[in-house]
Amino acid sequence: MARPRTPIGTFGAIEFTNMPNGTVRARVRFRDHDGQVRRVEASDSTRKLAEHRLKEKLANRRGPARGIGELSPDSSFGRLVDVWLGDLDLEGKLAPSTRALYERNMRQLVLPAFEHFSLREITVSRVDQFIKTLATTKSYSTAKQARTVLSLALGLAVRYEAIAKNPVRDTVRLRKPPTNAMALTVEQVEAIRSAVRSWRRASGLAGPKPDGQLEQIIEVMLGTSARIGEVLAIRKGDVDVTVTPATVRICGTIVSPKGKPTHRQQHPKSQKSTRTVSVPSFAAEVLRQRLVLIAGVEPEHLVFFSRNHTPLTTNNVRRRLRAVLDEAGIRGVTPHSFRRTVATVIDRAGGADLAAEMLGHTSSEITKQHYIEPDEKVNPVTAEILEALAPKGLGDDVG
């Protein structure tokens, strides 16, 4: 029966020999990257130093440290980034917007910190300090995004056998600072509506008057819970105002890939976000008004569009909303604020599961954690229940 062979990169017991010149030689049998067993030795002034030198030699001989193909331990981090981005394109699994985000985060956040290092020099300690510094000087979110792309790229280096393990995996876990989702009150929503309706409507102002789409978009966001890109991607054929209540199918989003024209993507943020929602009367009325404007066009035509009938960009809508609210002195409101408001209102009336269904989430935990404003008020039924603990015969002995 053949003896099982030791795995590549392993070695047996170290033999030490005192040499005539006063040094100590450390020697070991080592199974090399090609499967052959060889003797490797190193010498130094003491047994401990000789062992250390020997292990350094062995570490440099291990198979995973040799690399294959385009990457090796001596490849620069910049080279890894190029190979990684090419690999992302080869797989083709990412949405163009996600692919662009990954590259931007890598080039702006990560590459400046590691571009002068070889792959063998990117240690757990260096990565850990980089992520901690980014979380302190920038934000938790920025550090998390940087950590994600760095881990993906170094994971590719592991698969290319340029490094033995991914150093990101052994870094200290980022602790997200406590935050609460903030929903808008009814009064705040009314203030926003008023500000948008009155913006640049006064006589004597230069330039064209607003076309009214911004206030209509807000009503549809409030009536559907949809993200801004999903609202801008609603087509004529996605709306049904012949039923009561009216319905809207959320099945796409507007994207603006780098170097490419803005266009409608055929699915929302995720494939599972596709849904048909019933909308309240105020949103249905807005949609009826928009349908009148495009009565003679094909079902694929967008409900909201530019003067040239091209898609509106999410950045332009955000910029316009910010300008309106800044002028009105309203701070901290973004398109996502309306989505959180919808989630909170539905949760209070129908629970987190219904809110998650409305928002297109696969789990109500996501909705509760990021979208529903915490409710500090405990159900008052507890007062009735606790009456069972009232003292018996209170006041019977008085007088």
TrEMBL record:
Residues 260-272 have a biased composition (Basic residues). Residues 75-158 form the Core-binding (CB) domain. The keyword Lipid metabolism does not apply. CDD domains: INT_ICEBs1_C_like. Keywords: DNA integration, DNA recombination, DNA-binding. It comes from the Bacteria. Residues 255-277 are annotated as: Disordered. The keyword RNA-binding does not apply. Gene3D superfamilies: 1.10.150.130, Intergrase catalytic core. Residues 179-384 form the Tyr recombinase domain. InterPro entries: CB, DNA_brk_join_enz, Integrase-like_cat_sf, Integrase_catalytic, Integrase_recombinase_N, Integrase_SAM-like_N, Tyrosine_recombinase_XerCD. This is Tyrosine-type recombinase/integrase.
